[in-house]
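Consider the tokenized backbone below.
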């Protein structure tokens, strides 16, 4: 089967490029000229319907007509089709009618980024590449390394020194060649770009590669399918570069366009207050490139986002909004969600939950709201970060009276270990 990719359009000047054309718009340059992949949805509609979907694999390859690959080698096989978990006690705590958690921490490498990475690896194989590369402080890199290992490709990763240990351990365990740069993320990005040009490696960087959104949109496709009969009012997602939220919206919108759902949900973009250039661009229409990094939620610590235009278009098209949350709110959300749902969220995923609290406080959401929250990464990704949020164990002498005293003092019922 040939992919249904029809053309690519510049998000800045709207110029149109063929599928074998450039990955960024030459007229707008690499910073502004991000391209959007457009599909022939008429053709997709012919074979993708509810009956067809019912019999398909339980992974994101079930949406093969909507993915930019001709003949998928589903590697790894089990990316996507993550559970949507009803969380009534969390809903009560957040003051809304209903909360469902889309638990993407259950993907093979533990994050939402497995979706674009598995598509990227397939796209690379089709283009004859034998090495894939990316510059990332975390999940994009560890997912790419895992997918490359599953497919038998070589993988080169450029990270800054801020990478949490668990993510670094994953990269090394998957056998990637890891360049830890004594410099900034921008340095890592430039070195990766130069290496891809020189050595012909496949570049998995969300700013340069328009096909990653197509993998990420499967998160939105799944939310649409899983909520088909029971739609949410809002879908909340944390925002760093902006690519993920744009993709979630794109997935929801495409399911509506091909007639698999008949509803729309508003999209809530959540940034960390200390690093919120996309939120500010939503208000002003312009990107301020002077910000610094510095939030506890490392996966959304992106001071110079590349997909900010896609993100603000998506939020606007859905009638949604942006909110910013402080690091303390994120820590609180990680702790509360763990206790009330059994889902352990990494800080960037906790941000999306904190964003719902913030949106409720601001009156964007009300007591009757029904919200899906994208849990984009597993808490085990950043154990150090988690430990700052979750408190301390009760350290006692090995004497039974100490256990009794703690139990009688209500330790098991107190709402916090802090
Ligand atoms: C990458 C990532 C995000 C944000 O996605 P962007 O495309 O950078 O906006 C959110 N949460 C986690 C866990 C991530 O890895
Ligand atoms: Zn352009």
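A designed sequence for it:
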């Amino acid at each position: 089967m040939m992919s249904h990719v029809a053309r690519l359009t510049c998000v800045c000047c709207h110029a149109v490029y063929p599928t074998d054309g450039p990955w960024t718009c030459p007229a707008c340059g690499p910073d502004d000229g991000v391209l959007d992949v457009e599909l022939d949805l008429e053709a997709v509609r012919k074979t993708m319907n509810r009956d067809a979907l019912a019999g398909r694999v339980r992974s994101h390859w079930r949406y093969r007509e909507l993915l930019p690959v001709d003949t998928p080698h589903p590697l790894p096989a089990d990316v996507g089709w993550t559970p949507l978990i009803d969380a009534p006690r969390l809903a009560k705590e957040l003051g809304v009618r209903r909360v469902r958690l889309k638990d993407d921490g259950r993907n093979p490498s533990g994050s939402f980024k497995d979706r674009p990475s598995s598509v990227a690896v397939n796209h690379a194989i089709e283009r004859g590449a034998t090495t894939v590369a990316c510059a990332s402080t975390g999940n994009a890199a560890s997912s790419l390394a895992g997918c490359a290992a599953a497919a038998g490709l070589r993988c080169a990763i450029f990270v800054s020194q801020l990478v949490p240990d668990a993510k670094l351990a994953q990269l090394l365990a998957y056998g990637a060649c890891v360049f830890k740069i004594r410099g900034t993320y921008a340095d890592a990005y430039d070195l990766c770009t130069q290496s891809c040009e020189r050595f012909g490696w496949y570049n998995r960087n969300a700013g340069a590669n328009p096909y990653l959104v197509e993998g990420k949109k499967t998160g939105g496709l799944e939310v649409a399918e899983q909520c088909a009969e029971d739609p949410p009012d809002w879908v909340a997602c944390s925002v760093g570069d902006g690519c993920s939220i744009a993709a979630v919206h794109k997935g929801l919108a495409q399911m509506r366009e091909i007639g698999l759902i008949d509803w729309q949900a508003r999209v809530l973009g959540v940034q960390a207050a200390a690093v919120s250039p996309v939120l500010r661009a939503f208000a002003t229409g312009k990107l301020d490139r002077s910000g610094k990094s510095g939030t506890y939620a490392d996966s959304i610590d992106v001071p110079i986002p590349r997909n900010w235009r896609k993100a603000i278009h998506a939020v606007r098209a859905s009638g949604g909004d942006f909110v910013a949350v402080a690091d303390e709110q994120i820590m609180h959300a990680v702790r509360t969600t763990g206790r009330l749902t059994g889902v352990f969220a990494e800080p960037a995923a906790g941000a999306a939950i904190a964003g719902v609290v913030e949106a409720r406080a601001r009156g964007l959401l009300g007591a009757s709201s029904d919200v899906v929250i994208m849990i984009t990464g597993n808490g085990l990704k950043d154990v150090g970060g988690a430990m700052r949020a979750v408190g301390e164990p009760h350290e006692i002498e090995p004497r039974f009276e100490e256990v009794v005293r703690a139990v009688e003092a209500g330790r098991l019922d107190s709402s916090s270990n802090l």
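The domain at 84-108+213-390 is CATH 3.40.50.1100 (Rossmann fold).
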